[in-house]
Specification:
There is one protein chain. The protein is of the alpha/beta class. It is about 30% helix and about 20% strand. β2, α2 and β3 form a beta-alpha-beta unit. α1 runs parallel beside α2. The radius of gyration is 15 Å and the shape is globular. InterPro entries: Glyco_trans_8 (IPR002495), GNT1/Glycosyltrans_8 (IPR050587), Nucleotide-diphossugar_trans (IPR029044).
């Protein structure tokens, strides 16, 4: 049911919020029938939250999950990726039966609502590591149990690329 499904993205600061504005507009322009749910952190300013609220149906404030793994992130020359695991908060959106996560720098050019027909966990292989999936676009079913298990696994084993330690 479309009312129980949502596109989700994460915004950790006002710079990433600019991408979420473009993403939200592109989803609206392609006439999606799904809700738009935005995860934001405290670093997003209140004026920006107001702008985002015009396009996104729901804004949920979440804690920033930072890996603190500067060594591995330095190898990628992407220190900003330490907060990537903040995406895990998406699994707590249990008001939805299914979601499609899209990175805030994604632009939708045509309606992609058919992604909701995919099963959990559907994602494309990562171009740099084909045995891993790209976390920029994926289909998932929210579950607090899954959230808890993913967070615990991340704390215990870390991430090969510095995503969480």
């Amino acid at each position: 049911m479309p009312g129980q499904e949502a596109y989700v993205t994460l915004v950790t600061n006002d710079n990433y919020a600019l991408g979420a504005l473009a993403l939200g507009r592109s989803l609206r322009d392609t006439l999606t029938t799904r809700r738009l749910s935005l995860l934001i952190t405290d670093e997003v300013s209140y004026p920006m939250r107001e702008r985002l609220g015009v396009l996104w149906d729901e804004l949920t404030v979440v804690d920033l999950l930072d890996s603190g793994d500067e060594d591995r992130l330095a190898l990628l020359t992407r220190p900003e990726l330490g907060v990537t695991f903040s995406k895990l908060h998406a699994w707590k959106l249990t008001q939805y039966s299914k979601c499609v996560f899209l990175d805030a720098d994604t632009l939708v050019l045509e309606n992609v609502d058919e992604l909701f027909d995919r099963e959990e966990l559907s994602a494309a292989p990562d171009i740099g590591w084909p045995d891993c999936f790209n976390s920029g676009v994926f289909v998932f079913e929210p579950s607090v149990d899954t959230y808890t298990n993913l967070l615990e696994m991340a704390k215990q084993t870390g991430s090969f690329d510095g995503g969480f330690k």
